[in-house]
Write a structure and sequence with these properties.
2 domains, Beta-Lactamase, 11 helices, Methyl-accepting chemotaxis protein signaling domain protein, dCache_1, 14 strands, membrane
């Protein structure tokens, strides 16, 4: 806000109202800022604490899930060890391993490389026809004590990859431990155990041995490396200490550490069967940042709303406080412009409304004090002389004014009459022009109305034709929608039938596997029968022939079973391809059905619009016919108005000429009276102004106090 003072410069002030509004806004923002900082600090602490609890529960449940997955592998070996022929003491380990060769072929696609069976002496017979002594292996000794065993992946020169071994005790029919049954797995199978474990958005899961070797992870580049010396070798001692303590204690732990200048939260939990540790890690920001960001946005919104409310409240409170001061400023400002006690001088304090009051008051004193003192001395003498002069001039002026008023009144009447006649004549001429133009427009309008009636008749017929075509298209779209629904239902039924055939084929594959297993058992029995026949000599020759035929029959059954399995798998692949194609066709029919419905709805809308258009065209045609009838009547009336207007124009022209003659006569009389009136009026005006000036001067001077009163 700016004010102009006596020095001619504009001075900017910061008003009390603005000060109060600013104080309210600053106080409100300060409270919101403090609340925001405290709330964010408490929220961060609470979120981190909840994250620690959540991650601890997650790593515990995940380790249990890994134990269940490991247990599934052991249970598969348990199923093989419970086969009666495997438990039979009289059957050699080499013969027993032959029973598992077909099974290993089915398990290879799941990462199982071979099976092995061995006795207490540690001689292990494997399905890859190799024999080795494992009596000194830790896993063998652990299995012989009746426990499950699983080894860390080691690089196999034979397989040229990392492999792991699992083993369980082999028991006879009486439940005594007679040896071990083992399986060799791809080392990557352990990574599959943790491949589906996710922590946050970028977190990771690691399966770690007690020595710190990474056994499983979704990052193949760090697999089988030492987590302390090769993965996190440059990280903080705090994190490495936490991890070493977790690996040695085997207990679930949670810690927060900095890695690459990023705060990470890590949790560990040990596994049941192997003694390995599951490590889950993720950046803390992924659990906290989003919630903190939402909280900050909420506080920003609250701060903005509170700032607006504070400004509004501050504005009304300040306005109520400052309003009386502004009224005082206006009053003193008016006094400074020409009246008031010129002996008072207020001190100028501050640059607010009080300072403005003092400044305006002092300017008034400096502006009027000297002038009022000089004028007040002569104003009273001039007042007496002015009163006498005015009285004399008023008497003369009254007589002259009476004559002038009469002449002016008469001249005014003639002037008004002349002006009125002229305007009337001009107006009549314009009316005649307008009537003639109107008459021509009516002719053209009548012709256009007749042409419009003919055109609307054609449009109405065309709209009817278009409506019929659209209704035919609507029927066609309904037929298309029905056909589309029928095709979609047929393809759905075909897809369901294909799925049932595929399920039935799966059952046939299982039956084929059973047939092959029976053939293998029969072949083994035939071989035993041949051995017994050989021991019997000639007495067993016939039995040997029967055993040979049975073996051939078993081999033939096994070959046919494999062929059936291959054929059924091909059939299932073709059925799955057919089901996929049928599903795609059903989806396309769904698109066609949706588009057909949309087109059908659009056509219905167009039909409604065309019905409304036909109705409107009929109404417009009737209206235009009525307009044509009305236009004919208007044309006849306009012709009569044109004739009457021309007659009025003639009479007005004659009246105008007569008025001009009278005007010239009055002008001659008025010129003589004006000379007398001018002289009298000038004298009266001079006398009146003189008296008014003197009276005004005396009055204004009397309003000011120019002398101080001594006490």
């Amino acid at each position: 806000m700016k004010y102009v003072f006596s020095d001619g410069k504009k001075h900017k002030i910061f008003s009390i109202k603005n000060k109060m509004i600013t104080a309210f806004a600053f106080f409100s923002l300060s409270i919101v800022l403090i609340s925001c900082i405290v709330s964010i600090t408490l929220a961060s602490f609470s979120l981190v604490r909840n994250t620690r609890y959540f991650l601890n529960e997650l790593v515990f449940s995940s380790s249990k899930a890994l134990d269940e997955r490991s247990k599934a592998m052991f249970e598969k070996l348990e199923a093989f060890s419970n086969i009666p022929d495997i438990q039979e003491d009289t059957l050699s380990y080499r013969a027993k391993i032959e029973l598992l060769k077909n099974e290993i072929q089915l398990q290879r696609q799941r990462g199982w490389l071979n099976f092995g069976i061995g006795g207490k002496n540690g001689i292990l017979y494997r399905t890859d026809n190799k024999t080795e002594n494992v009596s000194r292996e830790d896993w063998f000794q652990r299995a012989m004590t009746g426990k499950y065993a699983i080894t860390e992946p080691v690089f196999s020169a034979t397989e040229r990859m990392y492999v792991s071994t699992i083993a369980i005790p082999l028991r006879d029919l009486q439940g005594k431990i007679t040896g071990v049954i083992s399986a060799t797995l791809l080392g990557g199978s352990l990574s599959n155990l943790v491949s589906d474990m996710t922590v946050g958005k970028t977190g990771a899961a690691y399966l770690i041995s007690p020595d710190g070797i990474v056994l499983g992870t979704r990052q193949p580049e760090i697999l089988y490396k030492n987590i302390f010396t090769e993965v996190f070798e440059s990280e903080s001692k705090e994190f490495q200490g936490f991890l070493r303590n977790a690996l040695s204690s085997g207990k679930s732990k949670v810690s927060i550490s900095k890695i690459n200048n990023t705060r990470y939260i890590a949790a560990t939990s040990s596994m049941r069967y192997s003694g390995w540790t599951l490590l889950l890690m993720a950046p803390v920001s992924e659990f906290v940042a989003e919630n903190i960001t939402t909280l900050i946005r909420t506080f920003i919104l609250i701060a903005a709303l509170q700032l607006v409310v504070a400004i509004i409240i501050g504005f009304f409170i300040a306005r109520r406080i400052v309003k009386p001061l502004n009224l005082m400023i206006d009053a003193l400002h008016n006094i400074s412009q020409g009246e008031g006690d010129l002996t008072i001088k207020l001190p100028v304090v501050g640059k607010d409304e009080t300072g403005i009051l003092s400044t305006y008051f002092n300017e008034t004193i400096s502006k009027l004090r000297n002038a009022i003192k000089n004028v007040s001395t002569g104003s009273f003498e001039m007042k007496t002389v002015g009163s006498d002069l005015e009285s004399n001039m008023v008497s003369v002026s009254e007589f002259v004014k009476a004559i002038t008023d009469s002449i002016d009144e008469l001249r005014g009447h003639f002037t008004e009459q002349e002006k009125s006649v002229s305007e009337t004549a001009s107006a009549i001429e314009e009316v005649i022009k307008a009537i003639r133009a109107l008459h021509e427009d009516i002719d053209r309008q009548l012709s256009v109305v007749q042409n419009s009636t003919s055109s609307l008749d054609g449009i109405t017929k065309f709209v009817s034709s278009v409506e019929e075509n659209i209704k035919d298209a609507q029927d066609t779209m309904q037929n298309l929608a029905s056909a589309t629904d029928s095709g979609r239902e047929t393809l759905t039924q075909a897809n369901n039938i294909s799925q049932r055939i595929s399920e039935a084929s799966g059952s046939l594959i299982e039956a084929s596997a059973v047939i092959q297993n029976i053939a293998n058992q029969t072949n083994l029995l035939a071989m035993n029968a041949a051995i017994e026949a050989a021991h019997a000599g000639k007495a067993g020759k016939g039995f040997a022939v029967v055993a040979s035929e049975i073996r051939k029959l078993a081999e033939s059954s096994s070959a046919q079973g494999k062929k059936i399995t291959t054929t059924l798998k091909n059939i299932i692949d073709e059925i799955e391809l057919l089901a996929s194609s049928a599903s795609g066709a059903v989806e396309k029919f769904n698109y066609i059905s949706n588009y057909s419905n949309e087109v059908h709805n659009a056509i219905e809308s167009v039909v409604k619009v065309m019905d409304k258009q036909e109705e409107n065209s009929t109404n417009i045609r009737d209206m235009i016919k009525n307009i044509g009838t009305t236009t004919s009547g208007v044309k006849y009336n306009s012709a009569e108005m044109l004739a009457s207007s021309e007659n009025i124009l003639t009479q007005a022209t004659q009246l105008d000429e007569l008025t001009r003659v009278l005007r010239k006569t009055m002008d001659s009389i008025e010129s003589q009276v004006d000379l007398i009136n001018s002289a009298t009026q000038e004298s009266l005006e001079i006398a009146g102004k003189n008296k008014e000036s003197i009276d005004g001067l005396v009055t204004e001077v009397g309003k000011f106090k120019t002398q101080t009163t001594d006490i």
